[in-house]
Amino acid sequence: MLDDAMDFKEQMVEARRTQILMGAAQVFAKKGFHRATTKEIARQAGVAEGTIYNYFDNKRDLLMAMVEMLATRSIKVTILEDPSDDPKEFFSLLLHDRYQLLKDYGHIMAPMIAEIFSDPDLREAIYQSILMPVADPIEQYIQRRIDSGEFKPVNPIVITRALIGSIVLNTAFQLSGVDPRYEMISVEAMVDQIVDMFLAVTKK
Amino acid sequence: MLDDAMDFKEQMVEARRTQILMGAAQVFAKKGFHRATTKEIARQAGVAEGTIYNYFDNKRDLLMAMVEMLATRSIKVTILEDPSDDPKEFFSLLLHDRYQLLKDYGHIMAPMIAEIFSDPDLREAIYQSILMPVADPIEQYIQRRIDSGEFKPVNPIVITRALIGSIVLNTAFQLSGVDPRYEMISVEAMVDQIVDMFLAVTKK
Amino acid sequence: MLDDAMDFKEQMVEARRTQILMGAAQVFAKKGFHRATTKEIARQAGVAEGTIYNYFDNKRDLLMAMVEMLATRSIKVTILEDPSDDPKEFFSLLLHDRYQLLKDYGHIMAPMIAEIFSDPDLREAIYQSILMPVADPIEQYIQRRIDSGEFKPVNPIVITRALIGSIVLNTAFQLSGVDPRYEMISVEAMVDQIVDMFLAVTKK
Amino acid sequence: MLDDAMDFKEQMVEARRTQILMGAAQVFAKKGFHRATTKEIARQAGVAEGTIYNYFDNKRDLLMAMVEMLATRSIKVTILEDPSDDPKEFFSLLLHDRYQLLKDYGHIMAPMIAEIFSDPDLREAIYQSILMPVADPIEQYIQRRIDSGEFKPVNPIVITRALIGSIVLNTAFQLSGVDPRYEMISVEAMVDQIVDMFLAVTKK
DNA sequence: TATGAATGAGATTTCATTCAT
DNA sequence: TATGAATGAAATCTCATTCAT
Fold first, then answer.
1. CB of B67 within 8 A of CB of B129?
2. Which of A149, A195, C97, D144 has its Cβ near the most Cβ atoms within 10 Å?
3. Domain ranges (residues) in chain C
4. Beta-carbon separation of A194 and B158 below 8 A
C-alpha cells in the first residue's frame, strides 16, 4: 500500500476515534461514566454502537483515551516551557490558563476524576499525563528561584499542590453555581487573590 | 409502650442503620458507588440483602445517609466554635483537624465526591452539610480580623477555598501514595507550610 | 377445658379471622391479589404481619377463605328457597338481589374472579360455593314451570347462564363508570328490561 | 435507504414483535399476568430475555399490545359492517362469531380481563378497542329496527350488554369444562337458545 | 398467641459486548 | 469497516414467609 494511502487511512481512523471520543465526552459529562450508555454515546457520536468497539476495546478504554486527549491539549502550555521572569506574571498567566482549561474541559475531566477513586490505573494515568506535566515545571520554577535566593526556602512540592488545589476549588465554585456569592467575584479578582497569596509566601 | 422499650427499640434501629452504613462505606470505598453491589454491601454489613431495604429506601439513599453521618462527625470541630486568638494556632489546629478527618473518612468521602458531578441533589447536600459548616466559620474568622485591622483586606471567600483546596490536595497526595516524595514530607511540615502561606497573605 | 371457654376461644379465633379477611378484602379490592402485600393487609386489618400466618396458611389461602365467606353471605337468598309463583316477581327480586350483591361485594369478588383464570382450584371453589347455589335453584324453577306447561321448553341451563351473564355485565357497566350513558339508566329500568327479556322467551 | 430495504426491516420488526407477543400470550394464558415471568416468556418466544425489551417497554406493555392485536382481529367482523336484514340470521351469525373468537382467543383475553380490575388504563383500552367496536354496531342495529317499527321499544344499551353477557358466560362454561352438562349441549343449540331469547324480546 | 425484623429467592430491567450481515 | 439486533449476566429491589422474643 502506498504511504499516501496509509496516511489517509490513519487520518480517517484518527478522525473517527476523535469523533467517538467527543461523543463519549459529551455523554460522560452529562451522565457520569457509569450512567452513560454506549447506545447514547454512539448516538451522540453519530456512529453505530458496534463501531465504538472497532476503535476502543471497551467502555473504560474511552475514559483512558480521554486522559490522553486532554494530556495533549494540556501540554501546549508555553507558559511553563518558557516561563516569565516576573513571578507575578508567571503565576498569573498560569492560573488564568488553568482556569480556562477547567472552564473548557472541566466537564470532561469531572467524570474522569470521579473514577480516580476506584481505578488505580486511571489514577496513575491522570497523574502522569495531566497533573505531573503541569506540577513539575512549577516545582522547578519555584526551586530555581529558591536556589537563586529570590524566593524563600519553601517546600516546592507542598506549595505547588496548594497552588493547584487553590485554583481548582475556587474555579469549581466559580463554575458550579453552588455558591451565589461567586457571581460577584470576577475571575481576575479571584486569580489575583491567589497569586498574591503565593507571592506573599514565596517572595522575600 | 414504655419509654424504656421505645428507647431500646430506637437504639436497635440506630445500631442496625449504622451497621449497614458502615458496610456500605467499606464497599463504596473499595469499589466506588456504582460498582458496589447491594449483595456485597449486605455481606460486608453482615445482613441479608433485603434487610438493607428495611432501613434505606434505595442504594442512593445510603450515600445520602453517609453525608449526614459525616456532617455530624464534622461539625464537632470546637476549633471553629471557640477559635484561638492566635491565627497561627487557629490555622494549624484547623488544618491538622481537616487532615485527620480526611485520613479517617477520606475513603468514605471519595465515592461521595465522585457522585457530586452527576447528582445535583447530592452536590447541594454535601455543600450544605459538610463544606459550608467548615467554610463559613473560617470566612467569618478572617473577616473579623480584617475588620479589626489585624488582617490585610483579602477576599475571605477566595482565601477560604484556597485554604481548603490546599489542604485537601496535599492530603490526597499524602495519603494516596501516588507521589513517593510525599513519604519524605511529614504531616507537620506540610501543615506548617500551608499555614505559613496563609499567614503570609493575611497577617500585616 | 370447659365448653364455655372453648366457645369463647373459638369465637375469638373466628373474630380474628374475619378481621384479617376484611383487611385482605380491602387491599385486594384496591390493588388486586398480586399487588396486595401482606404488609398492607396486616396494617389494614390492624394486626402484625406474622399474625396473618397464625390464621391462614398463606396469602392464597386468604382468597380461598374469602370465597367461603362470600358463599355464606350469598346463600341467604330466601328468594330462591321460597320463590314467588309470579315469574315476573321472581326474576325481578332475583336480579335486584344479585345487583345488590355485586354492588356490595363486587369489589371483593373482582380480585377472586381475576385469579379464576390461572387457579383451577379457586375456579372450582367459586363455581361450587358461589355460582351453583344460585344457578341451581333458578334452573329448577324454570324446569318446574316447563314441566307444568307454564313455560316454553327452553334450555334451563343456557337460559340461567344467560340471565346471570346479563345481570353481571350490565351491573359491571352500571358500577364501573366506563360508559357514561349508564348514568341515565336507572337500576329499575335495567332490571325490568332484563326481566322482560326472560319472560318473553320463557312465558307462553 | 431503499424503500424495499425499509419495508423488509419493518417486516422483520413486526415479525419479531408478533413472535414475542405470541410467546407472552401462551405464558399469560397458562399462568396469568403476574405469575408469568419474563424469563419464561422469552423461552416460549424463543428469544433472550433482553430481546423482549428491544420491542416492548416493559412487561405490562405486552398486555397493552395484546389488546391492540386482539382489537385488530376482532374488528374484521363483516357481520357488523353489512348486517343481514333478517334479525335471526344477524344474531345467529354474530353469536357464532363471538363464540369462535372466545374459543380461539379466550385464553389470551382471560389474563387481560383479570387485570381489568386493578388497571384503569387497561380497562379503558379494552373497552375502547374490543368491546365498543362490537357493542356499538349491535346497538345501532337494534335502534334502527326500533325506529322502523320492526322491533319493540327495548333499551338497546341494556339489551346489547345482556346479549354479550349471555354468550360470554355460556361460552365460558362451554369451554371451561367446569360444568359437565355442557358437554351435552351443542354450540348450535346454545346459540339458537340465546338468539331465540333476543328475538322474543325484540321482535313484534 | 402476637409481633415485626430478618430473610433470600426471585422478579424485572439494564446495558456492555458480540457477531452475522 | 459499519451496523444494530440479539444476547444474557448482573444489578436493584420486592415481598411472602419464618422465627426468636
1. yes
2. A195
3. 1-56, 58-202
4. yes
Per-residue pLDDT band for D1 (boundaries 50, 70, 90) equals very low
* pLDDT tens track for D128-176: 988 998 999 999 999 999 999 999 999 999 999 999 999 999 999 999 8
Contact yes or no for C155 and D198 at CB 8 A: no
E strand spans, chain D: none
**Which of D118, D124, D166 has the CB atom closest to C162's CB atom?**
D166
CATH for B58-202 (1.10.10.10, 1.10.357.10, 3.30.559.10, 2.40.50.140): 1.10.357.10
Q: Which CATH architecture has domain B1-56?
A: Orthogonal Bundle (1.10)
pLDDT score of B1: 47
Question: What pLDDT, in 10s, does the model give residues A9-18?
Answer: 788 889 999 9
- Whole-angstrom Cα distance, residue D201 to residue D159? 9
CATH code assigned to A60-202: 1.10.357
The residue among D63, D66, D178 with the most chain C CBs within 10 A of its CB, best to mutate, is D178
pLDDT in tens, C101-122: 999 999 889 889 889 888 999 9
Cell of C141: 324453577
Confidence of residue B6 (pLDDT cuts 50, 70, 90): low
Q: CB distance D197–C197 less than 8 Å? A: yes
Do residues C202 and C145 touch, judged by C-beta distance below 8 A? Answer: yes
User: Chains that contact D by 3+ CB pairs under 8 Å?
Assistant: C
Closest chain B CA to residue A191: B158
* Average pLDDT for chain C: 91
Q: How far is A11 from chain B (nearest CA, A)?
A: 34
**Residue D122 CA: distances (Å) to CA of D64, D117, D125:** 7, 9, 5
Contacts of C190 in chain D (CB under 8 A): 155, 158
> CA B107, B110, B111: angle at the middle one, nearest 5?
105
The amino acid that residue B183 corresponds to is E
pTM: 0.89
